[in-house]
Each structure stands twice: as structure tokens, then as C-alpha cells.
């Protein structure tokens, strides 16, 4: 038993070093990728399941290092802790702005959601970055929707709220991402300027086992607060069917479309005769 314990400790140390060195290497590589503007944006459609129409897009960052895609959860976290998320976010705004300007020639109402991190509120003049983007690409504020996760709001509401309110005054809309995972009270939600709740995938999955309780409650909360609802991570026809029955028709997930590069999105929009 003693020997095994010792071996386990050694194994743990080696793995831990691997993790630290992977992170350090990725941080260096990410710095270079940002300098070279090598990150890409993929777009996932949000669909009105009642008629198959397109409601909007979510912009999701993609980073290919050599031939490997690094998972966004991993490189976004590295960008956040190493102070690079503001630069990453500015590149996201610029790419999304350019894409929207082009897409809106054929789809004049098309809008796109962008994910925001806490550090972007701290490190830069976020309001100015966002306004610069829509000015540069001649977009109305309604073309860009901003996503904040529920856990971020729960931890840092007072820090974020003034900037949020300023952006709302300019006409930008906020979506509460991963809703249901972050313990917001109804009272608190009522006082925050969110336009839409995004129902986390973890509440959509139980629909397949005929367990509706959580989604039903979340939809009730959304209706009570007068907010739009988008269900995320919807993969099956059963899930779509049950969400429609329960009163949620805005759907994002592999069932309708996966995130895709801009060129693929253009072909997808044309193939699906949208809008
Ligand atoms: P998120 O904002 O919750 O984005 C939704 C995630 O669900 C995406 O993962 C998307 O690819 C995935 N997804 C969509 N439909 C389905 C489905 O039907 N089934 C399943 N299993 N998954 C689905 P992705 O692209 O790996 O991004 C992970 C997270 O990284 C995002 O979660 C977001 O928090 C963060 N992220 C991505 N791009 C950015 C960015 O530009 N800025 C910031 N701050 N965060 C970003
Ligand atoms: Ca999101
Ligand atoms: Ca989400
Ligand atoms: Ca998430």
C-alpha cells in the first residue's frame, strides 16, 4: 500500500507539470496568434422552431494551433487570466462587425450574439469598443447582442451594472447565458437589464427522459419577467417538440445547425432559403 501511494504521488506530479507546461505553452502561442490575428469566429444560428426561420447568430471563437482545435473553454480561460481577453474581445467585435455588415446585405435584420468576460469590463472602455465597432461597420445597436453568464453576474453585479446600463441606453440588448446554473434570485433578475434568458443545455437534456420540471420552471420565470427565452444545446427532435409544447420556440443547437465558419454559414443560409 505504501509503495502504491508513492507511485500515485509521482504520477500526480508528472500530470500536474504537464498541465502547467501545456498552459504556459498555450499562453505563449495564444499571444502570438492574437498578434497575427489568427483566431477565427464560427457562427451558430438561433432558429425559430415554429417556422424554421433564423432569429440570429452566436459568435463562437475558434483557435486552430497547428492542426489541433484548442477548446474555447481552455483558451478563453487562459486569455482571461493572462490579460489577453480584452484584445481577443476586440478582434471578435471587429470580425463579427465585418461579417454582419456583409450578411445584412442579403439578411437585413440579422443580428449576432457576442460573449463577454468580466475582464473586458475592467480592462478597457468596453462601451467605446462596442460603439466603435458598430460605427465602423455602419450597424445599428440592435445588430449586436451581448451575452453574460449567470455566474459572472452573480459574482460581479455591482462592478458590471453601470457599463451594462450605459450600453442598454445606447440600444444594445443583453442575454443572460447559461441561465439556471448560477443561483440568481428572481428579485435580482428583475432589476437587471436583461432582454433574454438562455436556458442552459443541462436543463434541455432531461426532456429526453420526459423530465420537464426544470425547463417548465425556467420558462415560467422568463414569462413572468417578460423576457425572451432561447434554449441552448438542443440536439434531438424530441427536445424541440417538448420545448415548443412548453412555450419556448427560440432554439440553438446541433439539431438545427452546428457552429460553422462564415463561408459555410453563407452557403447554409442560401440552402435553407432564409429568411
Ligand atoms: P457558451 O457561450 O455557452 O456557448 C455554447 C456552447 O455550446 C458552444 O461551445 C457551442 O459550440 C456548444 N453547443 C452548441 N450547440 C450545442 C449542442 O446542441 N450540443 C452541445 N453539446 N453543445 C452545443 P464552444 O464553442 O466550445 O464554446 C464554449 C464556451 O467558450 C462558450 O460557451 C463561451 O462561454 C466561451 N466562448 C466561446 N467564444 C467566446 C468568445 O469569443 N468570448 C468569450 N468571452 N467566451 C467565448
Ligand atoms: Ca454564450
Ligand atoms: Ca451558454
Ligand atoms: Ca457555457
From TrEMBL:
The chain holds residues 500 to 774 of 785 of the full protein. This is EAL domain-containing protein. Residues 23-273 form the EAL domain. The lineage of its organism: Bacteria, Pseudomonadati, Pseudomonadota, Gammaproteobacteria, Alteromonadales.
Amino acid at each position: 500500500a505504501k509503495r502504491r501511494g508513492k507511485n500515485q504521488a509521482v504520477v500526480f506530479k508528472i500530470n500536474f507539470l504537464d498541465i502547467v507546461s501545456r498552459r504556459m505553452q498555450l499562453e505563449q502561442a495564444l499571444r502570438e496568434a492574437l498578434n497575427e490575428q489568427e483566431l477565427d469566429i464560427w457562427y451558430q444560428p438561433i432558429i425559430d422552431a415554429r417556422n424554421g426561420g433564423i432569429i440570429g447568430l452566436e459568435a463562437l471563437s475558434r483557435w486552430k494551433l497547428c492542426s489541433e482545435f484548442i477548446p474555447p473553454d481552455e483558451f478563453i480561460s487562459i486569455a482571461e487570466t493572462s490579460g489577453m481577453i480584452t484584445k481577443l474581445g476586440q478582434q471578435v467585435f471587429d470580425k463579427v462587425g465585418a461579417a454582419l455588415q456583409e450578411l445584412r446585405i442579403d439578411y437585413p435584420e440579422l443580428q449576432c450574439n457576442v460573449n463577454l468576460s468580466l475582464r473586458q469590463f475592467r480592462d478597457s472602455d468596453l462601451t467605446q469598443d462596442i460603439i466603435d465597432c458598430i460605427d465602423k461597420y455602419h450597424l445599428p445597436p440592435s445588430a449586436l447582442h451581448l451575452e453574460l453568464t449567470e455566474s459572472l453576474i452573480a459574482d460581479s453585479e455591482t462592478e458590471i451594472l453601470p457599463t451594462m446600463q450605459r450600453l442598454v441606453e445606447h440600444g444594445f440588448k443583453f442575454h443572460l447565458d447559461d441561465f439556471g446554473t448560477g443561483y440568481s434570485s428572481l428579485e435580482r433578475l428583475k432589476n437587471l437589464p436583461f432582454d433574454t434568458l438562455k436556458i442552459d443545455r443541462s436543463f434541455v437534456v432531461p426532456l429526453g427522459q420526459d423530465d420537464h420540471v426544470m425547463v417548465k420552471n425556467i420558462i415560467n420565470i422568463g414569462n413572468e419577467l417578460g423576457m425572451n427565452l432561447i434554449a441552448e444545446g438542443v440536439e434531438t427532435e424530441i427536445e424541440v417538440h417538448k420545448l415548443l409544447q412548453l412555450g419556448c420556440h427560440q432554439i440553438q443547437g446541433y439539431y438545427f445547425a452546428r457552429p460553422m465558419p462564415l463561408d459555410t454559414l453563407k452557403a447554409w443560409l442560401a440552402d435553407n432559403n432564409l429568411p
